[in-house]
Predict the structure.
Amino acid sequence: MAHKHLTLLAGCLFAALGSLAQQQLGQRSRVQSPVVHDDGTVTFNFFCPSAQQVSVRGDFEEIHSKTLPMTRQEGGVWTVTTDPLNPELYSYSLTVDGQRFIDPANSYVNRDISTLSNIFIVTNYADDRGHLYQVNNVPHGTLSRVWYDSPTLGQQRRMTVYLPAAYDGKKRFPAMYLLHGHGGDETSWGDLGRASQIMDNLIAEGKCVPMIVVMPNGNPTCNAAPGWWHEGMYTPDGNAFNRRGAKATMEESFMDIVRFVDSHYRTIAKRSARAVTGLSMGGGHTFGISRLYPDVFDYYGLQSAAARMQKNDAKFDEQMARLFASKPKLYWIAIGKEDFLMQMNNDLRTYLDAHQYPYEYYENDGGHIWRNWRIYLTLFAQKIFK
């Protein structure tokens, strides 16, 4: 059965893309896919005469993924057109006779843990989400992969650093530390979260302060993204090397990152010019960092946070009291109504309310998804350093 599917895919890809020699001569694929129309509808095309059943599955609805059956046209091209889609970045894949594939006609692919998906953007006007997530004709910041030393973890580790277009090595800038979730790494916010595009566009439109954005790897047992450190090309599964243990937690080692950034970049090295925010596991890291280092950051953003509370714990109560006695400028909680971590976040809000600790809360539709986290980054970036 596996051999049958591999033979089918090979035949479809050969038919769709032509031979290597033909590609080198500049021949184009027989089909274009996806085709984004002016009315917001999107047409998917897939050339595979031998296929029996083809469909597209993507995040075309606000909350749930949707599967669209494709229709075989004369000549072996399968096609389907969506209803009008709202401005957004969308992910999708093809299912061909029961097997999941990426679209061979679409070069734009993202990796989420071990899953590859194609992406496309729908935009209607200059202030919608699609416009914010795409590359526009504005001054561009620099996105770099940087290795740093973590004495606490005993490792050379990698992170991604965004420098705004105005960064010239002379002027100093505030820094936002942006943390990924479980299964992610230092590439997640740049690739899946469109962090550099969001920051470029917000800064160009005057909606947020130019800032440095630091995106570290939050896995203390992994030095870098899969394939980018000495463990080689292992299969990402979100739990790689956890059994070996780490010398310290991400929170305990976090000041190694701050010290490196302050010593290698033109930062404003004080509390009022530092923010930390993260999604899911990274939101949990933010929750812990806020308690360990209450005088280091002035802005905290918990996005769909795995904020595990330690109930009836005197040390936890003492940490929270110390944090809010320091009067941070912003303690922000954001989560979708369908997020499976909603109860955990409600418990945190109940605790904050009971102790009269000030915070801001944002709730929207949807669940534990990148669509929401891009929104939360966009909102948080506009609230800080002002």
Summary: The first strand starts at residue 35 and ends at 36. The radius of gyration is 23 Å. DSSP finds ten helices and 18 strands in the chain. Residues 2-17 form the longest helix (16 residues).
